[in-house]
Design goal:
The chain has 252 residues and is of the alpha/beta class. The chain is built from eight helices and eleven strands. The relative contact order is 0.17.
Length: 252
């Protein structure tokens, strides 16, 4: 079974490709997180967890959900992490998660996709984004083949910089960076409520048809990048940047 979490579509795209090519059921855990649904999940095939990388680790809300929900059936666990550059030393923490869940860790696949973290980094224009996705397809195909052959993903070499990124930097990232304080809606907001619907933590509400943000943000960028009017900004950091949203996967 393919279980995924996605804010702007990169990980959804990867999950849809894996689901189609492996003929495995697809389940959006973002919707489960949003609704609070924690009923057990059963799989007859290997678990394939697909997620973006936040601060060179699995997003905390995704990890917390996986720790809370009961996973029944097969014990094999593969992880596919999308990222803008690299996944650092995330594999160590995923192996620890598997040990805590009684799963057999089969490795982590790093898949570089278009950068979507508009709060901090440059975001590619449409043509560049398409080229990055095109380069990711062979990587995902290798992942499909390894899973289908019941082989571990190749182990990624991890250095001291990777360990620092996924350790010290990740902790600082969550403590000092992940805040919703800078989000605001411009006058061009049409009050459609898509930001409310797309927030996995129910952190966005409409007040007189204008979105307001609470304190429970994970910086998934679903609100700002999926706004049809491009009316949401993150302070001055998002100004004049393109809004990146990955379209659904279509069989090539």
């Amino acid at each position: 079974m393919i279980l995924y979490f996605s804010g702007t579509g990169n990980s959804r795209y990867a999950a849809e490709l894996l689901s189609e090519q492996l003929n495995e059921k697809l389940l959006d855990l973002g919707k489960r997180i949003k609704s609070g649904e924690k009923s057990p999940i059963f799989s007859t095939g290997p678990w394939v967890f697909v997620s973006p990388t936040y601060g060179w680790q699995l997003p905390h809300i995704f990890e917390e959900y996986l720790r809370a929900v009961e996973l029944l059936g097969d014990k094999r666990a593969y992880f596919v992490l999308t990222c803008g550059s690299d996944i650092g030393g995330a594999g160590r923490y995923l192996a620890e998660l598997c040990q805590a869940k009684g799963l057999i860790y089969r490795g982590t696949l790093e898949v570089v996709m278009p950068e979507n973290y508009i709060a901090l980094f440059p975001v590619p224009e449409e043509q560049e984004a398409e080229q990055i996705i095109e380069r990711a397809l062979p990587v995902l195909q290798h992942g499909v083949n390894w899973i289908a052959q019941d082989r571990d993903f190749p182990q990624r070499k991890v250095g001291i910089v990777d360990r620092i990124k996924s350790g010290l930097v990740n902790r600082a990232f969550y403590r000092f960076v992940i805040k919703a304080d800078l989000f605001y809606a411009k006058d061009s907001c049409v009050g459609c409520g898509k930001c409310v619907a797309n927030c996995p933590l129910n952190n966005v509400k409409l007040n007189n048809q204008i979105p307001v943000w609470g304190k429970h943000c994970t910086h998934c960028m679903a609100c700002i990048c999926n706004c049809p009017a491009q009316a949401i900004e993150y302070g001055s950091r998002s100004k004049n940047k393109p809004r990146y949203r990955c379209l659904p996967y279509k069989k090539q």
